[in-house]
Amino acid sequence: MSPSQCERCGEYYDDDLNAEFEWCKPCLINNSNDIVFEWIPYNQFYNIIEVAKGDSSKVNSAICKNGPLSYSYLKKKLTRVSGKKVALKYLLNIQNNTNKFLNEAKTYSVNCSNNILKIYGISQNPHTKDYIMVLHNKYFEKYCKICCSTRIEHNWCNSCNINLIRKKFINCNSGNKEIDDYIRETQLNINNPYNIVFEWIPYDQFGNINEIGKDNTYAVYSAIWKDGPLYYEYMAGWAREPNKKVILKCLQNAINEFFLNEVKTYSINYDDDNLIYGISQNPSTRVYVMIIQDKYHEKCVKNGKIDNFIQEMRANNKPDNINFEFISYNQFNDITYIAEGGFSKVYSAIWKDGPLY
Ligand SMILES: [Zn+2]
Ligand SMILES: [Zn+2]
Ligand SMILES: [Zn+2]
Question: What is the superkingdom listed in this entry's lineage (predicted)?
Fold first, then answer.
């Protein structure tokens, strides 16, 4: 039995029991960290590229020549993966407040068995004297790419998105203060990626406008919204869903207060059922219009059989009859029964909420 020298603590130990390990037993047992946190000289980094800069921090990507020191479970020893890509994080405007820097460094992990971003060590830019956290390359999978500092879930940074909405999307030209205020307030209350960006939508955005129902209170049209609603895409950020089929609903001869009350009965949360995308105004009649989800259509397109049935029922419907498209999918108890039953049977027996008008 020849003694081996532990790569971690330098002690000699008998390697009879753990011949393939190059750490002594106490080190293997006591060391719960997978990464050996170290001082990494700045000249170890090359290909340094600025990735993002926020108000309080900046992150560069770089290649670490010798690579950070970590325990390899495969090789069962400490190894360096040379040429490893890392993220270099600077804190800005901290005026040499080393404590602030160290406190942030402590929020990262040297342990691979958790979901917290890994930190390999600390470095210092020799020119600016700024301290640098040397972090795992996937920094922006866990932190916002705009402000560089907020920990995010589903790529959503609330404060950055609210700022974006403020700058890019708030368009209030309704000519009515209450409606403008309502749009602004609704947009600024967005706090997750599943919210609709409630908008003022110019009327010329709508094509293929067809009346589908009208009485003394309401007029309802189907239409195609050319640009379509905004939605938040995890990877790409904000995008629009063009040529969206929507419903335009107006209150006949209603004063604005009633209009807004009706608007408030709809939801901007994609998980809900009665979605509203925004408000528009018919320029010739000056009537305000709610842009709401064509919810039956959205569900029926997923089911060709049911959709064909709807088309058939619509073709049989005389004008001024209650329109079949208005019966939402979840108001039916039994879809197969509907497909087999006649319209009047369906109408009287299964339509739980009753007709709209
Ligand atoms: Zn040891
Ligand atoms: Zn952010
Ligand atoms: Zn349809």
Answer: Eukaryota
User: So what's the architecture of 18-142 in CATH?
Assistant: 2-Layer Sandwich (3.30)
Q: Where in the chain is the domain with CATH 3.30.200.20?
A: 18-142, 163-293
How high is the ipTM of this complex? 0.50
**Smallest-distance ligand from the CA of 313:** 3
Query: How many Cβ atoms are within 10 Å of 218's Cβ, its own excluded?
Result: 16
Please give the residue that has the higher pLDDT: either 47 or 80.
47
> Which option is the CATH number for 163-293: 3.40.50.740, 3.30.200.20, 3.40.50.2300, 3.50.30.80?
3.30.200.20
Please, which pLDDT band fits residue 109 given cuts at 50, 70 and 90? confident
What's residue 202's pLDDT?
93
For residue 316, the number of C-alpha atoms closer than 13 Å in the C-beta half-sphere is 10
Give the distance (Å) from ligand 3 centre to CA of residue 295: 9
Q: Which residue has the higher pLDDT, 216 or 88?
A: 88
Ligand that lies nearest to the alpha carbon of residue 148, given by its number in the listed order: 2
**Centre of ligand 1 from the C-alpha of residue 30, in Å:** 9
User: In angstroms, how far is the first alpha carbon of the chain from the final one?
Assistant: 93
Contact partners, residue 272, CB within 8 Å, separation at least 6? none
